[in-house]
Amino acid sequence: MDLIVHYDQDSVEKYAENTLAAFQGAIDSGVDVLETDLHITLDGIIVINHDTTTGRVHDKDLVVSQTNLSDLKKLTNKQDSSQEFLTFKELTQWFTKQRNDIKIMLDIKPFNSKSIFAKILKDLLDIKDDLQFWNSRIIFGLWRLDFYEFGYTTGLLENFQIINIAISSEISKQFISYSQSVPKNYKLSAISILDVSSWSSDFKKFKKTVLDANNISLYLWTVNHPDDIKKAIQLGVGGIVTDDPVQVIAEIKTAISRGPNAIIYKEPSLLTFEGLKSNVIFYLFKLFELIVLNEVHTYKIVQLVLGYTVKYVINHSKREK
């Protein structure tokens, strides 16, 4: 199982996000993959930042794509003033000095231009002119299918590990379908989806019949709560994206100590606060999913969700008896 760290402002370790200190802390804690977000500055430099603007983390609020690197370098990190605004080249230069088994997952947000692929490859080869070295260490995380198609038709993603990052597995199905039409060295290796989207028996079936059948790993994000970590481990995921790697490692060790067939997580009763909360969260997500993905009339969606909720309560009550 891959342990992927994504430190943000809510991280337990309280590192300043997307800084070398945070990445070093992640490696020291025992992670397998570093996850980060890329942007292109006004003067065409790839930089590391989660948001499209800088105000949440730095002392001035600038739009990254409308600002030159020299001005971004003048910013002060609110949490750790010793950490400067990081470029992709600076990150990869530091990365070449780390353990050989560490990887970087590049979260290619949809607002980026497709030109970022060529820029990424240029930066990588400028740092170390060895494409095979980078093929085994860089993961491209794509949100949009047309980015995947572009990476294939141009040859820019050849031999790189490719994953789909999505809110819902419904989106990932498009990537999986396309992956079946491309050569082996462009195949989708994993999907990384919002944790709550996996909280159903239908998803467990999807994992078995679609993901496992096509040798596609499952990553869940962002998993921090102990119960959610246990649930992910029991589901048999290929990777967990977290802000709290220490907690995840502890839960993995506990699960291993109990043996391969042990039940490490049991769904709480709907009559408990935790059971009620998790069901409310799940059905709110399903409502969101239906609205966004299927564009169904709102009334019909609410009616459907309420129907599922009532059905669940009845079935759950029978099991409790």
TrEMBL record:
InterPro entries, A to Z: GP_PDE_dom (IPR030395), PLC-like_Pdiesterase_TIM-brl (IPR017946)
Kindly name one Pfam family recorded for this protein.
GDPD
Q: Which GO terms describe its biological process?
A: lipid metabolic process
Domain of life, per the record?
Answer: Eukaryota
Provide the protein name: GP-PDE domain-containing protein
Please name the taxonomic classification of the source. Eukaryota, Fungi, Dikarya, Ascomycota, Saccharomycotina
Domain GP-PDE: where? 1-252
Q: Which SUPFAM superfamilies match?
A: PLC-like phosphodiesterases
Q: Which GO terms describe its molecular function?
A: phosphoric diester hydrolase activity
